[in-house]
Amino acid sequence: MARLPGAPAKLLDYYPSNTDGASEERAMARFSSRLALGVAVAAVLSVSGAAQIPTPAGGWTASNFNETANRYSPLDQITAANVATLQPAWRFHMKPAGYTGALKTDEAIPVVIGNMMYVASPYGFVHALDATTGVEKWKFQLPNNDVPSKRGLAYWPGGGGAQPQIIFGSASGGMYSLNAANGALNDAFGNTAESI
């Protein structure tokens, strides 16, 4: 009789009173049923857990849209019918003025909360931009020529008296927490605003 991968070699060990081949087949059927039930329960729990994650209204709160990491936005302003007619509303250059080195590649995915866009720069900054106009509201420069992680900005909405924060890691292994409104370091984060 064929055995399922991962199934015990002898199911009779689980049912000591069974001694004939028919009993072994019944034991295998019970094992298979329990395995199928376990897989079904796990699937239902994973779907119901994903459904409980709120979809941000008009925002992109994490590097993969939200905690489901599906990289899909339910917004419908841009469609297959109008995408060819789109024009840039604004541009923002991450390269600092006066920088003379080679251009750096960027893989950062912006985080958008309300009308604020937060983006990590390969030049060692985190920028907060007005999402409508592209005007820079604030920028934070990492110390010691460090750079923010390429895909790691996250938004925390605050709570318990704490203000909303932008949280990210750096290439050197540090963790930062910035006030989302003004870019100030969060002194209550870790040992200091930078926690290594």
Short structural description:
The chain has one helix and eight strands. The chain has 196 residues and is an alpha+beta fold. Among the domains are: 41 residues; 93 residues, Thrombin, subunit H (Beta Barrel), CATH 2.40.10.
List the helices and strands and how they pair.
Layout: H1 21-51, E1 111-113, E2 116-120, E3 125-130, E4 136-141, E5 154-156, E6 165-169, E7 175-179, E8 194-195
Describe this structure in words.
It is a single chain. By secondary structure, the protein is α+β, with helices and mostly antiparallel strands. Among the domains are: 41 residues; 93 residues, Beta Barrel (Thrombin, subunit H), CATH 2.40.10. The protein is built from 1 helix and 8 strands. The chain has a 4-stranded antiparallel sheet with strand order 1-2-3-4, with no helix packed on it. A 4-stranded antiparallel sheet has the order 5-6-7-8, with no helix packed on it.
